[in-house]
Amino acid sequence: TQLLEQSPQFLSIQEGENLTVYCNSSSVFSSLQWYRQEPGEGPVLLVTVVTGGEVKKLKRLTFQFGDARKDSSLHITAAQPGDTGLYLCAGGGTQGGSEKLVFGKGTKLTVNP
Amino acid sequence: NAGVTQTPKFQVLKTGQSMTLQCAQDMNHEYMSWYRQDPGMGLRLIHYSVGAGITDQGEVPNGYNVSRSTTEDFPLRLLSAAPSQTSVYFCASRQHLRINYGYTFGSGTRLTVV
């Protein structure tokens, strides 16, 4: 069974600070997705990375897929209160002959004004 | 607006009752799925479908049934509700069968079984 471990589980920071969220596994994934979920809503896709070592930027958010495709990180520069939410990583792989998406348990980020 | 629509938003059931959670998407997505989200457990796959008439079990299928008679609709049925099924349920779809294409999630159904 493929598992994804996210760290930290909770993160509370002040506006303007930088932060990094990690997503790690012992398994190799064909792709890695990051979602943000706000209270009372469903997750919203931020980015998909598919190539080992790939780096994607979305405004102040930088996503990286590890060279071995077993881990990923999300870095936020100069965090703002609007970045508050639950950040989920999800890894794509093949299990039992079919493609499955495995979710991490999430990192709950609070950015205080 | 195009997307995934889930109804109801909230539901309280008594133990043993049955109900259907509705999910509809208007994006002509082939793949649809149901997840439950519990504190400390993350999102867990219940059932999924790769097209009309085709369904399969996910990680936690017991106590739930699904059907896919049309591309647009993918209802989730609770046969006999149990307190362990108290959770937030999300329907998600994606355009292609390949998982590299991200999901579009509905806004969820918060279910409480008493």
Salient structural properties:
heterodimer, A: 113 residues, mainly beta, five-stranded antiparallel β-sheet, 11 strands, B: 114 residues, four-stranded antiparallel β-sheet, 51% strand, globular
Which helices and strands, and how do they pair?
The complex is a heterodimer of chains A (113) and B (114).
Chain A: E1 5-7, E2 10-14, E3 19-24, E4 31-37, E5 44-49, E6 55-58, E7 61-65, E8 71-76, E9 85-95, E10 98-103, E11 107-112
Parallel strand pairs in A: 2-11
Antiparallel strand pairs in A: 1-3, 3-8, 4-5, 4-9, 6-7, 7-8, 9-10, 9-11
Chain B: E1 4-7, E2 10-13, E3 19-25, E4 31-38, E5 42-51, E6 54-57, E7 64-66, E8 76-78, E9 87-94, E10 104-105, E11 109-113
Parallel strand pairs in B: 2-11
Antiparallel strand pairs in B: 1-3, 3-8, 4-5, 4-9, 5-6, 7-8, 9-10, 9-11
Short characterization:
The complex is a heterodimer of chains A (113) and B (114). Chain A is built from no helices and eleven strands. Chain A is mostly beta strands.
Your description of this structure?
- The complex is a heterodimer of chains A (113) and B (114).
- Chain A is built from no helices and eleven strands.
- Chain A is mainly beta.
- In chain A, the strands form two sheets. In chain A, strands 2, 4, 5, 9, 10 and 11 form a six-stranded mixed β-sheet that branches. A five-stranded antiparallel β-sheet of chain A has the order 1-3-8-7-6, with no helix packed on it.
- In chain A, strand 7 (61-65) and strand 8 form a beta hairpin.
- The radius of gyration of chain A is 14 Å and the shape is globular.
- Chain B has strands at 4-7, 10-13, 19-25, 31-38, 42-51, 54-57, 64-66, 76-78, 87-94, 104-105, 109-113.
- In chain B, the strands form two sheets. In chain B, strands 2, 4, 5, 6, 9, 10 and 11 form a seven-stranded mixed β-sheet that branches. Chain B has a four-stranded antiparallel β-sheet with strand order 1-3-8-7, with no helix packed on it.
- In chain B, strand 5 (42-51) and strand 6 (54-57) form a beta hairpin.
- Chain B is globular, with a radius of gyration of 13 Å.
- Chain B starts with a strand and ends with a strand.
- The mean pLDDT of chain B is 94.
